[in-house]
Amino acid sequence: MRAQSLGLRLAVIEVTESILEMEAAAPGADVELMCKTLQVDHKLFYFDFKENPRGHYLKISEKTSGSRSTIIVPMAGVVWFVDLFNYYANGEDPQLFSKELQLDTKVFYFDVNENQRGRFLKVCLAFLACTVHLIC
Q1: Sign of the four-CA dihedral 102, 83, 71, 135
Q2: Taking the CA of residue 55 as centre, how many other CA atoms within 13 Å lie in the half-sphere pointing to its CB?
Q3: What is the CATH classification number for the domain harbouring 87?
Q4: Angle at the Cα of 32 from the Cα atoms of 23 and 80, rounded to 5 degrees
Q5: Least buried of 7, 47, 80, 97, by fewest C-beta within 10 Å?
Q6: Taking the chain (136 residues) in consecutive chunks of 10 residues, what is each chunk's mean pLDDT?
């Protein structure tokens, strides 16, 4: 789990650093500015930095053999999102606390859970009446 967390954390940091260095692309429909993929066990994680007329955003998707979950992080919250992610990825304390991050009308919930395969981080996005889960 530690090596996997480190790989995922490094990918998120790399994407974030690239995002902060990028210039705005041409206006119009959603434009993909950068895409990174990370495989952890049987899961694929996609980090897509995009732009649309409302601004820049980070789209994070998790794909397993039978499903795909996606959350969208507005540019204004990417640094906070990564800071919270790193809090969990670096956490050695078995009593890590659940946290939430509110960005405009979105609320991201970070929860550490455990099952027979080990500990994992569950990130949920609540937006209006819809909730999306992304398991790391």
Answers
A1: negative
A2: 10
A3: 3.30.2450.30
A4: 65
A5: 97
A6: 50 49 54 91 90 92 87 90 83 77 86 85 77 59
